[in-house]
Write a structure and sequence with these properties.
By secondary structure, the chain is of the alpha/beta class. Helix content is 33%, strand content 18%. The C terminus is likely disordered.
Length: 233
């Protein structure tokens, strides 16, 4: 699987970037690579990489997240360990960047080191089914806001169009023209199209660079307990 040492996932709130970041980390780990996931999301208090802490540990994947994650505090405090991950260059780093431009502000402090090493890709995660990114023009506007906020440009697009559990292969196929149009507008290549693993048999021969993913089933904080669906390692 082609990759850079640092992979950043960013996109509008609800685009599915956290789920993709985790799936990407598992894919790298399956190749035997040392991997650490860093949670830079200061916007979403519910769907956090920290929810997968136990599963990540069992897979041998490191996790760096704010000590305020999954609490009632909303403080943009970034762990110092992220600097070591970005500067260390001894393991793959998967960074889950916060939703939209406000969340991307947290990334700005690490950009000089990321640029210096120049072994990164910043992936624009888009979901055509989300209200604010239903057109390629809207998705491009979101991308420009994120880039301006963090000072780093996107290098490729990830088409993550889905309707949750109701997603069909037809939905994924219908989104390909949307991703191609966004690629034309931005000048960015479509690195991959993500689709739930159950749909892979119907899509493998029809979708270029298909990335089969497992969907994490998280329970929001207001519900009793937390849980994770099984991820196939």
């Amino acid at each position: 699987m082609e990759h850079r040492r640092i992979t950043l996932f960013a996109g509008h709130y609800g685009s599915g970037k956290t789920n993709l970041a985790l799936n990407w980390a598992y894919a790298l780990r399956r190749e035997g690579l040392p991997v650490t996931v860093a949670d830079l999301d200061i916007v979403n208090p519910y769907f956090r990489t920290k929810d997968a802490a136990a599963e990540l540990e069992r897979a041998g994947i490191g996790l760096i997240s704010s000590r305020y994650a999954n609490t009632n505090l909303d403080v943009p405090a970034m762990p110092r360990e992220i600097y070591s991950l970005v500067d260390g260059r001894d393991r793959c780093a998967v960074l889950d960047v916060g939703g939209d431009d406000r969340g991307a502000l947290a990334l700005g402090r690490y950009v000089p080191s990321i640029r210096e090493e120049d072994d990164y890709e910043m992936l624009l995660v888009v979901n055509r089914a989300r209200p604010l990114t239903r057109t390629a023009e809207d998705a491009m506007a979101v991308a420009r806001e994120i880039e301006a906020a963090c000072g780093l440009g996107f290098t490729a697009i990830v088409n993550n169009t889905n309707l949750g559990a109701e997603t069909t292969a037809k939905d994924v196929l219908a989104s390909l023209s949307y991703a191609d149009e966004l690629s034309r507008l931005t000048g960015l290549p479509v690195k991959m199209t993500a689709a739930e693993r159950r749909l892979a048999p119907e899509l493998t021969d029809k979708v270029e660079n298909l990335f089969p993913i497992d969907i994490l089933e998280l329970y929001y904080m207001e519900k009793e307990g937390t849980g994770l669906g099984k991820i196939n390692l």
